[in-house]
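User: Can you predict the 3D structure for this chain?
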Amino acid sequence: METKKNRQNFLVLVPHRDTRALLQKYSETLFKSGLCAYTFPLAAPLAALHCPLNADELKQIAHSLRKAAGESKFSAEGAVKTAFTTGAQEMDLYGPQLNIPGLSGILKESENKIKSVISPAALGVYLLPKDIEQQTCCQNTEYQKFDFRAAAIANMYWQPFEANGKTCFKWKIGKLCWLPKKQTNQPGA
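Assistant: Here is the predicted structure, written as structure tokens:
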């Protein structure tokens, strides 16, 4: 029987479905090249949480992220490995590095619910156990750059479990809180 004791909560940034479709193609390219790893939701974990954030907290963070981005798009490029704790198992999250200016300051308002900020941020493509080196097939894969403006934040729960002697993971991304559209200053408004 599964228990919820090893369930973890994360705050994630979820790009618009157009960007997720590009990420999915990139992920498929990696796996077709022979990569053996765990897949990951096409989202960027920003912070590990003590408990899920409520709707008002998500909305505040969404507005702060949009304000920090200003007129710029979010940019993810290259590749980065970042530590991702999955219960008792230490793993590395791999994917394009996401640049979010001032993320620690943005999350300060909800710091009582935040265990840790995940840095560097990465748009998750896959997970590797810590004891496995990055596979050579990834070194021959062309990295892509993803620029996007449309995104949402949400709570995500993550739960590792064993099935037939193998480690498995299940997750669920909660209700999306979309970042507001970019602000336009219109005279007389």
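The helical segments are 17-32, 55-69, 103-107, 136-139. The two ends are 58 Å apart (CA to CA).
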